[in-house]
Design a protein that fits this description.
heterodimer, A: 320 residues, alpha/beta, Rossmann fold, Alpha-Beta Plaits, 2 domains, 34% helix, elongated, B: 243 residues, mainly alpha
Chain lengths: 320, 243
């Protein structure tokens, strides 16, 4: 897959406060990539940099081989941007607005006249052509905003929280539209809502406090976290004084990051152990050597939701 | 240049559609009519030569045009920032100067239309008195030039902020200071007095237009002020875009 976007050590500071970076990644042509993170993680800043709406404080990025810092003007013609809040003029009619947006992107004449009905059809706003934008619901405004972002057939489509403020039915429709757009555009989507990304993207980049903390497919992310979580059930040994003792014993094993022990009513201890790698063998040995009765040990499966929460919250929340 | 034309047409349509445009036009024309009657034609004005009446007309019209220019310009960029629509322009392949010039020209054309709508007043003087069409045309050229300079100051003010109120205060303050340079020049010693007299946006540079005398230096002055503040606005847009 040929590379479309290259981001190298990009940072953004607002005053003295770091909002992003340094982050580095590549995105290939035709990929649909989701940027996950909580509010304030740096998603919007990163997308605005890629849309050439913001200049990075440091670092380099290119789109289709064009330097985004030195020649942002050229990149803007390759990019369609849907900001979180639809950039619409309430007093304009839908058709008029799309005409304006198309002309801003250099379209005119027959080309523009051809594209307006096409994007209206893709975003299902054909019947709204003569409606004033101020009369439209948020959902329709979002569609019109999506239409302006694709009117010039950009190679790269950047969607910042495209389903924010939509009702469940509109969210499904928006997802379906984005699925359709994947065929023609490389698509970047930001969201803090996991199912949106989960349903739409080929690859995920997870941001936390402005830093890229994980990258990969949904399966990659889950696998990465699974390998670090081990669940075990043990019966306390004769010399054991309970949960505190077993936690201390396991914490002394090299590679163990944290141990969470919960005592059940039948006396069995349920353990959730965070380790640097799959250490089931080492954990088993340590438990048996200490005189615990090992009843079960397994890798803990994580749902993507849990993986997401671990990644975006950081290590302090890991394991529960 | 297509981008300038696209921005210009949208902004001009916005003035035509908006309440603001009509309120400013109505206020300027009503006040101009009242002042014209009270200072020129009415009994309070006393007996004057036609040329003096016309000069007084251009004098108060220049003040009204300056105020109207600030009122029309403050929304141009600040409103778009506030509403979040500026991102449409800033992520399109449109340069900062194209945005600024397109917006400036739309406000200038609307201001010019309001100014020209006052033409019936000099016509009344022509019908009832003795003035030359040249004096009238030079006066209107002066109004358009001072309007252009004040608009450019307003465009600079609106490029600095997302709050229209802040833009209005900054624009009004800058214009007021440019007016007060003349008063300042009267109390200072040379060479500072000459510097401030030369910088003052009204008195020395407008008096020629008021009396029908066209000086190239005055035309150059107003064009230079317009250019300077539009350049500042473009730079402010660039800095804001990349801040």
């Amino acid at each position: 897959m040929p590379e479309l976007i290259r981001v190298s050590e990009v940072s953004k500071f607002y005053g003295g406060k770091r909002a992003l970076g340094p982050v580095s990644f590549e995105i290939g042509t035709g990929e649909t990539v989701g940027f996950l993170g909580l509010n304030g993680a740096g998603k919007t800043t990163l997308l605005r940099i890629l849309a050439c709406d913001l200049r990075p404080s440091a670092g380099f990025f290119s789109v289709d081989g064009v330097d985004g810092v030195a020649t942002p003007h050229h990149i803007r013609s390759l990019v369609g941007f849907l900001p979180e809040s639809p950039p619409i003029y309430p007093e304009m009619k839908v058709g008029e607005y799309l005409h304006f947006a198309g002309q801003l992107r250099g379209l005119n004449g027959a080309n523009l006249e051809r594209r307006i009905p096409e994007v209206e059809e893709v975003t299902d706003i054909v019947n709204m052509h003569n409606e004033l934008l101020r009369h439209l619901s948020h959902g329709y405004r979002q569609r019109v905003s999506l239409a302006q972002a694709i009117i010039h057939e950009p190679a790269l489509l950047i969607l910042d929280e495209p389903t924010t403020g939509l009702d469940p039915a509109q969210i499904v429709e928006m997802r379906s539209m984005i699925q359709g757009l994947k065929e023609k555009h490389t698509v970047l989507i930001s969201s803090h809502i996991l199912p949106e990304i989960h349903a739409t993207c080929d690859r995920l980049l997870v941001l936390r406090d402005g830093e890229l903390v994980a990258s990969g497919t949904e399966q990659d992310l889950s696998k990465r976290l699974e390998s670090c979580r081990i669940a075990a059930s043990v019966t306390p040994g004769e010399a054991s004084s309970g949960a505190g003792d077993i936690q201390a014993s396991l914490a002394a094993v090299p590679g163990v990051r944290s141990v969470k022990a919960t005592e059940k009513s039948d006396g069995i201890l349920e353990l959730l152990i965070e380790t640097e790698s799959d250490m089931r063998a080492e954990i088993s040995r340590a438990l048996v050597n200490k005189g615990y009765g090992l009843m079960r040990i397994d890798r803990a499966d994580l749902e993507l939701e849990e993986a997401f929460l671990q990644l975006v919250h950081g290590d302090e929340h890991a394991g529960g | 240049m297509q981008a300038v034309s696209v921005v210009f047409r949208r902004e001009l349509a916005e003035y035509v559609r908006s309440v603001l445009g009509y309120v400013v036009a109505a206020a300027v024309l009503i006040l101009a009519g009242l002042l014209f009657y009270s200072q020129g034609l009415g009994p309070a004005g006393g007996e004057r030569l036609s040329g003096e009446v016309l000069a007084r007309f251009f004098f108060f019209m220049s003040g009204l045009v300056a105020i109207a220019a600030i009122a029309l310009s403050i929304r141009l960029i600040a409103e778009e920032r506030q509403a979040g629509t500026l991102v449409l322009l800033s992520t399109s392949p449109v340069k900062e100067w194209e945005i600024v010039i397109g917006k400036f020209l739309s406000a200038f054309v609307f201001l010019a239309a309001i100014t020209v709508a006052s033409f019936y007043m000099p016509l009344l003087i022509m019908v009832n008195g003795k003035i030359s069409i040249g004096q009238v045309l030079v006066g209107y050229l002066g109004l358009l030039l001072i309007g252009s300079a004040c608009l450019a100051i307003g465009v600079f003010a609106t490029s600095l902020t997302r709050h229209q109120l802040v833009a209005a205060v900054v624009g009004s303050a800058l214009t007021g200071i440019m007016f007060l340079f003349w008063q300042l020049s009267q109390v200072l010693e040379p060479p500072l007095s000459r510097v401030f007299a030369g910088l003052a946006i009204h008195a020395r540079h407008f008096i020629g237009f008021q009396t029908g005398v066209l000086h190239l230096r005055d035309v150059v002055y107003y064009l230079a002020v317009t250019y300077f503040f539009l350049l500042l606005a473009i730079k402010a847009m660039e800095v804001k875009r990349w801040e």
